[in-house]
Amino acid sequence: MQVFVLRIGHRPGRDRRVSTHVGLVARAFGADGIIYVGNVEKSLLESLRKVVETWGGPFSIEVAPSYKQVITYWKERGGVVVHLTMYGENIEGSDVLERIKAYGRDILIVVGAEKVPADVYELADFNVAVGNQPHSEVAALAVFLDRLYGGKELLKKFKGGRLAIIPSPRGKKLIGAVDHE
Ligand SMILES: C[S@@+](CC[C@H](N)C(=O)[O-])C[C@H]1O[C@@H](n2cnc3c(N)ncnc32)[C@H](O)[C@@H]1O
């Protein structure tokens, strides 16, 4: 099962840091890649690619001109589209996650920035809330991925990076040139 994140509504300059964090969370919490829509700074993409080079992957980073094209293509290929929104079915206290998992299909997770276009709610197969209160796309994505993978994504072995951390109760321990398979 492939899981990709679609980040829509990025505003150059203003959203640079948050959009970078959406990418970092997508990778660290087990997604296979991120697709940004629109005018995304090259420096943002380069900083994410550096993270993959340093800490491993695989993790795909792409830019697309239109969210509608990405969503339509994803659905044509048989994938399911999950839009994270505070207005959706709450991931806690409903069976929405079980219904998504039951599909057993590739998942495209859509997260917004400012106001999300109305058609996204219609194009999505599921509109899912991480609690029905406003917060952040970074938090919503982290919680959704963690529940999707049941926490196992935190043990994921990343491959091909230059560095890896040796977990340590104090200080910083690293090993270099890890697992270049
Ligand atoms: C800062 S919010 C803006 C939401 C905006 N008010 C709207 O109408 O969509 C940016 C993104 O964070 C995510 N988000 C915020 N709160 C959420 C929640 N409670 N559940 C799921 N996603 C949420 C959504 O993906 C949303 O598009």
Describe it.
The radius of gyration is 17 Å and the shape is globular. It has one domain: 3-Layer(aba) Sandwich (Alpha/beta knot), CATH 3.40.1280.10. It has helices at 16-28, 42-55, 67-76, 96-103, 118-123, 137-149; strands spanning 3-7, 33-37, 60-64, 80-90, 107-111, 126-129, 163-165, 174-176. The protein is of the alpha/beta class. The strands form two sheets. It has a six-stranded parallel beta sheet, with helices on both faces. Helix 2 links the parallel strand 2 and strand 3. 35% of the residues lie in helices and 23% in strands. The structure holds S-adenosylmethionine (SAM). S-adenosylmethionine binds at residues 84-86, 111-113, 115-116, 129-131, 133-137, 140.
Looking at CATH, the homologous superfamily is: SPOUT methyltransferase, trefoil knot domain
Give me the Rg, rounded: 17 Å
Helix content: 25-40%
Total domain modules: 1
Strand order of the largest sheet: 3-2-1-5-4-6
CATH architecture: 3-Layer(aba) Sandwich
For this structure, the CATH topology is Alpha/beta knot
Distance between the termini: 22 Å
Give descriptors for this structure.
binds S-adenosylmethionine; Alpha/beta knot; alpha/beta; two-stranded antiparallel sheet; six-stranded parallel β-sheet
